[in-house]
Amino acid sequence: MRRPLIPRKLAPCLRALPALAGLALLTGCWLDGRQSTFDVKGPVARAQLDLFMVTVYVTAVIFVVVGAVLAYAMIKFRARTAADERAEPPPQGHGNFLVEIGLVSASVLCLVIIAVPTLKNIWFTYEVPDVQRANAYEITATGYQWWFKFEYPAEQIDGVGPLVTGNELVIPAGRPVRVNLRTVDVIHSFWVPKLAGKVDMIPNRANHLWLQADQPGYYYGQCAEFCGDSHAIMRFRVIALGEKEFALWRANQEQPARSVAPATADAERKPRAVFASFTTHPGAALSGSAEFDADPFAAWQEKQRPDPAGENPALAAQGRRLFQEKTCIACHTIRGHEGVGVAGPDLTHVGARTTIAAGTLENTPQRMHDWIADPNHFKPGNKMFNGGYTDPATGRRLIVLNETEIDALVAYLQSLK
Ligand code: CUA
Fold it and tell me: Residue 383 belongs to what domain range?
């Protein structure tokens, strides 16, 4: 009796494979996701993808050739009858000189095909190409458990130092950006899948990478090296802006914190004119995640604009007081206001960010309320809760906030555009 080539039980699974692959292609769920390395948006990521595809093609050829020879041998020499099963194996040889030389040469050829573009790319991705070096913009990214600090050495603020932001890296589009990579604690890794990565941020080692976004847009970044409890939600965003809008953004960020306290209402509550040139998106509400996800770049632009009509100056003023009383100032800087701490992200313009908790939550009043109320729920192990709200040694609660106090803090922080 002839045996089936493939065991009967396996056949339906194999038949379903092309259908599953087709379904994945049709739904397109794996090629243009937020962190897809196939949907590249800049020269560095493009070089990395091209190199990846070279490797895929070479290994595909190996797979097909080896698979075909294996299949041929399995079919041609398989035991067909009961007598075959009991037969002695055929005489065993000691190889074939030509076949061996051929296989070694083919392997060397495959390695060369992969190695040449690999070496080329190692140099290309390591440093901004000479012709563009003069045009490169420099930024320093520092990893903390579990968030990112971004410093702009080119933007020095009088008496303060470089401009500092957290978790949202704003860069000029169409221009190479050289990112210095630092860490204050453990090893992290800087990765923006559609633009560039990954390079580790290693203690006592000055690593760097460069990236470039071809077009203005909103890109997703992620720490790519295990760094503790909340590693998987140590995220960040990259927002690439045209040259003019990037200059406007910098001008606004260099301003001290916006004030909506009643005493200064007339002087400082005027909307800042610098963002008037941003496209208006009347429908781009930030309350619904579906809308935000549909066009995060529009949502980001919308977030830059102060909303004096929707603000409660008295509540914001109370929030500003609470920010001192509850010792938030010890860990967060709010330049021009009271905060001076550097253990946590700079919050001078936190109201203008699209995310909080290092890219974990959308920056809406509701989400900010949830975050302040129970940070450990969203980012287990974070220092705001463990060491801020509670004493990690004894578990004793140090800071207690009631609902009204949280609302006031949210009103204050959201006003910081
Ligand atoms: Cu930082 Cu993983």
Answer: 265-414
